Amino acid sequence: MHLDHTHDGPTAVSADAHRPDGRRRALRIGLGGPVGSGKTATVAGLCRALRDELSLAVVTNDIYTREDAEFLLREAVLPPERITAVETGACPHTAIRDDISANLEAVEDLEDEIGPLDLILVESGGDNLTATFSKGLVDAQIFVIDVAGGDDIPRKGGPGVTTADLLVVNKTDLAPYVGSDLARMAADARAQRAELPVVFQSLRTRAGVGEVAGWVRAQLAAWTA
Amino acid sequence: MSRAALLVLADGRFPAGGHAHSGGAEAAVRAGRITGAASLEDFCRGRLHTTGLVSASLAAAAALGADPVTLDAAADARTPSSALRAVARRLGRQLMRAARATWPSGELDSLAREFPKGAHQPVVLGLVARAAGLGAQDAAYCAAYESVSGPATAVVRLLSLDPFDASAVLARLAPELDLVADRAGEAARRVPSDGIEALPAVSAPLLEITAEDHATWPVRLFAS
Known about the structure:
heterodimer; A: alpha/beta; 7-stranded parallel beta sheet; 7 strands; B: 224 residues; Urease accessory protein UreF
């Protein structure tokens, strides 16, 4: 977190904690992780858990379609004007890390058009284990992996697994069917991440869903403190 | 003035949003007009002498201090496709954001206030060159080079084209890039005496038409 990142003068710079009118901007949380690990479903779960208590919006970064945005629209987790899709030129990690200009434009437009927001979730298109968000774009990031992608992913590490502010190990209900050892995944994640938190989540059994939402609430409490 | 500022501005990794755009190459690949290095070269040559020349002239004129609002209207008039006008403004806004953080300048601040949703990218580029202490010719070179480097990079991804072949295409176009940058610089220097009409108004109709179609594709790798 970089809570007091401010710049002098009129230049609107990406990480500024305040908008040009002096109000504090929305907290931005990024969600990254491999293809199919359940990022969009996690975003949908967070929207359902938080939409009655917070003003929130979502930016998706699809690889070559608008499918993630359309999934969220279809599921009606938020009104359509609160969901924006950014096109990434086949390179989601470029759009969330190396050249964040289109994403910054999207978050700025959402705040301009909808009014004060508490939270903006920025979802990356599915990418590889090294894909992380720029600190100029988000204040904290969640990395989502799943048990079916192989229980050796926490051991392999990589910037997403080791440095994300929260690691979500998703689809725990599938573990018995794919032969994944959850205890081993937990031990490997602890070894890679030291004190950083890990949540084991199943959107089917609802296990862990409340914990992820609780973590987001705590981030927001620190941001607005 | 620092010569090296030109390298910073012209670097394809300068974070101003260009990576998500193919400059019409995605539509041309789908239509079978770009199939390899030779047809990529033809495509780039065509784009350089049309869109590239117009963009380079606008950028050079902005760098020389011509009124950016007038130049923006001139860019609108030279871009028949509304999809391409929207793309030019989006990229202008993204370049503005990157440039104001990189080379803070009062002129950029006032242009940003004038066009909160973005001015045409070549106009912004010209003012960015000024802010970076670069000249009109430098701005023209950046615009001309972008007009071909964008499609070349995109085609490497779209066709899995050998990246060395794509670089060789750009190298073979270098003498023509010099020519276009010179013509753009000359035209821009005539603006104070001859008015905005001194700027070239050549266009590539197929690029305009396919951009309109491309904007409606439900599945695409590039935003334009």
